Amino acid sequence: MSRLKLNRRSLLKGAAGSALMAGIGMPAISYGQADALKIGHLTPRTGFLGPLGEYAVQAADLAVEEINAGGGVMGRKIELIKEDSVNPQTASTKAERLIERDKVLCIVGEISSASCLTIAQVAQRTKNLYINTGGNSDALRGSNCNKYMFHVESQNSMYVKTVGRALLAKNMVKGKKWYSLTADYAFGHDLLKVAKRFMEANGGQFAADELVPTDFSDFSTILTKIRSAKPDMVVSNLAGVQITNFLKQYSEFGLDFPVAGFGFDTAVAWGAGKGNFFGTWPLVWHHLIDTPGSKAFVAAFTKKYNRPPENQAWGDYITMKILARSMTDIKSADPLKIIEHWEKEPKFDLLKTREGYFRKYDHQLMHEMYAVEALKASELKNQWDIYKVAPAVPAANEPLDAIASTKEENACNMPA
Amino acid sequence: MTVSLLLQQVLNGLLDGVYYLLIALGLSLIFSLGGIVNLAHGAFYAIGAYLTVALTPHLGFGGAFVAAPISVALLGMAIERTLFQRFYRSDPILSLLLTFGLALVAEQALRMIFGAPTLSYSIPQELRGQIFIGDFIYSRYRAVLLCIAVICVAGLWFLLNRTAFGRVVRAGVQNPDMVGALGISLQPYMSAVAGLGIGLAGLAGVLLAPIYSVHPAMGQEIITPAFVVVVIGGLGSFWGVVVAALLVGLVKGLVVAFGFAQFSTSAIYLMMLLVLLFRPRGLFGERIQRFE
């Protein structure tokens, strides 16, 4: 006789339930406003990219607050409807809902390249505008490019070429062997391809490349392999909290091969702790950029949230500003008119030394990037300023597209 | 691969298994005794890690190491008294929903209190560094971690198998009605077991905070493999869970060591599938009347 209606299957249900948990995101909270211009904000707020998504949401909020305080756009306030994108399937469902139910004029956000793709497909089907603020994969600007998607986030090629220049200058490429760790999903696969192309073009080779699952947290086995492979450099194509785990454990095991990364967010290094950050890393923006625009943004963000913004915050902040600027300029909130406007390559203030523009050919934002070098623990003055400030890439006398992929490297044929 | 390298990888894998073990032992105990599938177990692990980060500036790592697991254990006992207790005699799907909800609430609470970005935390200065034995290199911190975990597991084994407390708990797992008929109320034992199991999850949080990222969803990363461990090990068997945890760690480690890191997650599910096909009760699962 059984007292409880309980059996072993309950336990299996439990195991299945625990796996389901990762599929539940944050609830959406929105306050309706009559006559407001609605913009959908869709980005991962839970899971391994969640720590970065938080910066995106906070920065988008800040930008909207500033725009509304300045009178809004054409006399109308902007209303942000924020959703947690969770994973590619959920991202697609939520994008549909934002467009069809909430009637947003465009969708902004995302960090995962896999989710960018499913949102872009919805945007294309419904002829709506989607602005990618955090997905790096070249394929999104190449084989998967479409008329309705624009990219404020830099593509993998721009990241690789930015850090690549720093590595070439340090003589870490030609004749060298790299050991690379790659996040095992769309972003990582794409980045590895671009990194290999760079390596081959510049006479280096890979000692090994490891694909690392996104939920992989114990790197000891990989670190042991790296130690015995004795590479000239260790290269990270990892993403999100993976990088934090890697940095912490790399320093725990005391490995001293130089480290460089082709994808990076400052928040993952801030989260690693003192003495656990080293190497050369690429950034689309950082809080130490010495321009009045950046300084004002850093001050406003720090005042509101008690910590400085990082690169992901910049992406979502600047996107809101570009959108507001453009709608005011063309006196229209019609997504198709905005696309038409951006395809004429108007220049925008990006809080950097040079203005930038969306390249008509693949809708990639052309702008300056930075390769930063980690400071030693003994050189740190505070917990935020963890790297040496480097001049922008490309240099002032070069065109902005010098670091972007060429048509040969990443062909985009936009369906009309 | 040299012998020394293989040995290191075996050690890495086993230690990875020890983390799962600290989580899985509690899961198994709580399920065996009360029939609660505790999906919130990972959340208690995360709370342990967050408490460590929050308490270290005041108490140091040593103080946090003691205070955090005890606080998490007390929290676990409070939740057992107020919530779990109501579900011991109901359909397990209800307790599944309860703990699922608890896990989400806990994760979101951490996000609201501490923010979503990863909290910065490092290995305490005195435990940093590496151990070298010839060609062999190991992290000092992990060696300490291993010792602590072994002591805890041995202590738990002693408690369950060599004390009066353990006798009642084991009897309660096998036949709670008979324990009741003998005039022993299982209730305080249920609370104690919840406290112990959840405290162990909190301890895992303390031990892993210095080497893993401390972020709100960290509990999700560890809970599913821990379930796999319990399923592979089999219910009611202490050593089953121990062997399963080490096996999961070892298989994962060796899969990476031989160059298939991308399959390290799927490998443990494949292993669970095989075990379930050939030994539905798990490797060392005992025949427990009320679970059949």
State the helicity of chain A in percent bands: 25-40%
Low-pLDDT runs of 5+ residues of chain B are none
Q: Describe the oligomeric state of these chains in a short phrase.
A: heterodimer
How far is the first residue's CA from the last residue's CA of chain A? 69 Å
In helices, the fraction of residues of chain B equals over 70%
- How many domains of chain B? The number is 1
CATH topology of the largest domain in chain A: Rossmann fold
What CATH architecture of the largest domain in chain A would you give? 3-Layer(aba) Sandwich
Q: Roughly what fraction of the amino acids of chain A lie in strands?
A: 15-25%
Supply database-style keywords:
heterodimer; A: 416 residues; alpha/beta; Rossmann fold; 5-stranded parallel β-sheet; 4-stranded parallel β-sheet; 38% helix; globular; B: 292 residues; mainly alpha; ABC transporter involved in vitamin B12 uptake, BtuC; two-stranded antiparallel sheet
Could you describe the 3D structure shown?
The complex is a heterodimer of chains A (416) and B (292). Chain A has 416 residues and is α/β, with parallel strands linked by helices. Chain A folds into two domains: 37-155 and 289-366, Response regulator (Rossmann fold), CATH 3.40.50.2300; 157-284 and 369-403, Rossmann fold, CATH 3.40.50. In chain A, 38% of the residues lie in helices and 15% in strands. Chain A is built from twelve helices and 14 strands. In chain A, α2 links the parallel β1 (37-43) and β2 (78-84). In chain A, α2 packs parallel to α11 and α5 (156-169) runs parallel beside α6. The radius of gyration of chain A is 22 Å and the shape is globular. Chain A starts with 7 loop residues before the first helix and ends in a 28-residue tail after the last strand. In chain A, 57% of the residues are buried. With 292 residues, chain B is mainly alpha-helical. Chain B has a single domain (3-291), classed as ABC transporter involved in vitamin B12 uptake, BtuC (Orthogonal Bundle), CATH 1.10.3470. Helix content of chain B is 72%, strand content 3%. Chain B has helices at 3-34, 41-82, 92-114, 140-162, 164-174, 176-181, 187-208, 218-233, 238-257, 264-278; strands spanning 130-133, 136-139. In chain B, strands 1-2 form a two-stranded antiparallel sheet. In chain B, α1 (3-34) packs across α8 (218-233). The radius of gyration of chain B is 19 Å and the shape is globular. The chains are: A alpha/beta (416), B mainly alpha (292). Chains A and B meet through α1, α2, β7, α7 and α8 of A and α1, α3, α8 and α9 of B.
